[in-house]
Specification:
The structure holds two protein chains of two kinds. By secondary structure, chain A is mainly α. Chain A has 13 helices and no strands. Classes of the chains: A mainly alpha, B alpha/beta.
């Protein structure tokens, strides 16, 4: 019990805190790829969400407006991407990369408008994580097992979205149609599914999720003005989409595993006589190992949606 | 298929080159304003002028120096931001500063510009080259740096008096002498007021990665630390301390606004103390290159930001005591006897670490818990 409350739980909470933005990005990536669109703009959309969430909650001091702005900014980035790839049939890879570069530049521009070092009002951060003992009205939770529930609202929201997505994809008609679009554009079209609409809706929803991930970072995790608060988390999400074989529930485990392994490297530094550079490679090594294992037993179910990267042109059928 | 991948490649190149062009444009928009004074400074920043860290400290320093001289940054300086120092990007910019904008002073704020500045200094003997944190000199090129260790020592005093658990976390960027030296100076400051306290150093292996910096600080806090100090370019580690309701020491600039409930003090730079005398000499035509400048609290180049309400009682008095001794030179941060954290005597009693040994310092002092692995 001592180990559980003093070592495991605090560590678990840290791993969750670190892994959540990656989870949002991964879920956004899964949605887009299920619609047959590889979106490498996750990093850019997360950055746009982070900047919008930060600036709006800074000026309005309202957490809802901040989150809404982040969702809209991420969705807006995805809308540009969807317009270019779905309507104009631009190459998905290049468009995604351009979106990332655009998002990074836009964020720096907006944040640099104000030259001061600033912090979002504490009330915003606090309303994203109500203190557990206040909510339950119990004292002395510091070293108890209940500490495990002492997480940000955005953490529960991410878990909830992952579960909802799982049911949506596997147990609803819309989910079935979406998977059909992702697997075979022509067949889905022949079956009377509005392919372009499905692509638009899901790519944009995916972007909104990425925006939320950015908002988690800039409004809750590090509510201090930082130019590049996302710094590569979006790219990890791109890899994680494959790592979890396009399954939302596995994304929860994948992002937590990645978070935990990243932190393990840091906390092992003082104890183990391994190079910290090697320890920093730990999450990537494990990810590659898991990738190899999953690709060895790759069944059709675990494969990438087959129309990924292809644009749909009715006339070319 | 081949045609398509070629297309992808070409568009990628196009996008990248557009971005490249965009970034190079910054700064040159300030030209055209003919100033009556002939001093014109061209500055190469490694980060954004508003990064709230390293580059901001240089921007403030140059701006203050110029305004103290009755000049202005807008008229007498042009700059370019976020220039990488690990490739040749700075060369074209320096050339255009000199040839198009008529600049007569070049300031480069990152180590990696050094070799290129030295090469260019031979081509433009009439221009003064000032290079921060390097070792190169030439007839018309000087290098400069500050003894930030002295300020880190003072910030260590604030941390040592504040800690209750006697464990202080130090989020460190890269395993290089500059960072090791800073951590050691901080630990010696802690030791001066609290011999029982340990400083736990954890490496992030990056100068800038906010989430990693915060997570590293959090693992230190989980390990029982109750003060977090940092040698990083973002203020993210400060947030870990504030969220955990414990204390923090910043770096580069006063980070009180980043973590008002946690921040104690921060080692800071006052670069105008270097820039002003040099620019005055250049303007007067009496400047000579070839200097390696390394000063500290004696000229006010480094200092700590004002103590916040979070600092422990009596901290100010202790800091004033050591600050006075550092200023008049009667105390040296690295004076013996110093042992490393494996028990070997590194500096004998009565002597002190030479500048050369400080510049190559790759061992931790006694009260540091941490490892250096190359």
């Amino acid at each position: 019990m001592e180990f559980l409350t003093h070592d495991f739980i605090p560590y678990f909470i840290l791993a969750v805190g670190y892994g959540i933005p990656i989870l949002y990005g991964t879920l956004g990536g899964i949605l887009a790829e299920k619609a047959g669109n590889i979106n490498l703009g996750i990093e850019g959309m997360m950055l746009m969400g982070a900047a919008a969430g930060f600036l709006v909650s800074l000026s309005t001091e309202n957490v809802i407006y901040g989150l809404l702005a982040a969702v809209l900014a991420g969705g807006f980035g995805a809308l540009i991407y969807a317009f270019l790839t779905v309507s104009l049939k631009a190459n998905q890879i290049v468009t995604g990369l351009a979106l990332t570069i655009f998002g990074a530049g836009m964020t720096k521009f907006l944040l640099n408008l104000n030259k001061e070092v600033v912090r979002i009002p504490n009330s915003v951060q606090k309303s994203l994580k109500p203190i557990l003992s206040d909510v339950l009205g119990i004292e002395g939770l510091e070293h108890s097992i209940f500490k495990i529930f002492d997480l940000s609202i955005l953490v529960y929201l991410a878990f909830l979205i992952a579960i909802v997505l799982h049911f949506y994809l596997n147990h609803t008609r819309y989910g079935l149609n979406l998977r059909a679009v992702g697997e075979n554009l022509a067949a889905a079209d022949a079956a009377g599914i509005n392919v372009n609409l499905y692509k638009y809706v899901h790519v944009v929803l995916g972007g909104a999720l990425c925006g939320l991930g950015g908002a988690y970072l800039s409004m809750y995790y590090i509510p201090i003005k930082t130019e590049d608060v996302v710094h590569g988390n979006g790219w990890i999400a791109v890899a994680l989409v494959i790592f979890v074989s396009w399954k939302p529930l596995r994304a929860i485990i994948g992002s937590l595993l990645f978070g935990a392994l990243s932190l393990l490297g840091k906390s092992l530094q003082t104890g183990v006589s391994l190079s910290p550079y090697l320890l920093d490679m730990l999450p990537f090594i494990v990810t590659i190992l898991v990738l190899i294992i999953t690709s060895v037993q790759m069944s059709k179910e675990n494969a990438q949606p087959r129309s990924c990267g292809l644009n749909f042109d009715r006339e070319e059928r | 298929m081949l045609k398509k991948s070629l297309l992808v490649l070409l568009s990628f190149v196009l996008v990248l080159s557009l971005v490249g062009c965009g970034s190079k444009k910054t700064g040159s928009d300030k030209e055209g304003d003919e100033s009556s004074d002939d001093l014109k400074v061209g500055v190469i920043y490694v980060g954004a002028r508003a990064d709230g860290g390293w580059s901001t400290t240089h921007y403030e320093g140059i701006k203050n120096a110029l305004s103290n001289m009755g000049l202005s940054y807008e008229k007498n300086a042009i700059d370019v931001e976020s220039v990488r120092d690990d490739n040749d990007d700075c060369i074209a910019k320096i050339r255009s500063f000199i040839e198009k904008d008529g600049v007569n002073v070049i300031i480069g704020t990152s180590y990696g510009y050094g070799s290129k500045m030295k090469a260019l200094s031979k081509e433009y003997p009439e221009v003064a080259f000032l290079h921060c944190s390097g070792g190169d000199t030439a007839d018309n090129m000087s290098n400069y740096f500050g003894r930030i260790e002295q300020a880190r020592f003072l910030s260590g005093i604030a941390a040592g008096l504040k800690t209750k658990t006697n464990k202080i976390g130090y989020v460190a960027a890269m395993q290089i002498p500059e960072v090791v030296r800073g951590a050691n100076a901080f630990a010696l400051g802690v030791k001066a007021v609290n011999p029982n306290a340990k400083v736990v150093v954890s490496w992030t292996n990056t100068w800038y990665d906010p989430a990693v910096e915060k997570a590293t600080a959090e693992t230190l806090l989980t390990g029982g630390c109750d003060v977090i100090a940092q040698h990083q370019d973002s203020p993210a580690a400060q947030e870990a301390a504030q969220a955990a309701h414990v204390w923090s020491v910043g770096y580069n600039s006063d980070m009180t606004s980043a973590a008002p409930e946690a921040h104690l003090t921060a080692p800071i730079w006052n670069w105008d103390k270097y820039y002003q005398p040099e620019l005055e000499k250049i303007q007067a035509g009496t400047w000579k290159g070839g200097e390696s400048y390394w000063k500290g609290m004696d000229v006010g180049l480094v200092d700590i930001s004002p103590l916040t309400k979070n600092a422990a009682e009596g901290t100010q008095a202790k800091i004033d005591e050591y600050s006075a001794k550092l200023k008049d030179g009667s105390f040296d941060v690295f004076s013996g006897e110093l042992k490393d954290n494996e028990g070997n005597v590194k500096v004998k009693a009565g002597s002190k670490l030479t500048d050369a040994d400080q510049l190559g310092m790759m061992w931790f002092v006694e009260n540091v818990e941490g490892k250096i692995k190359q």
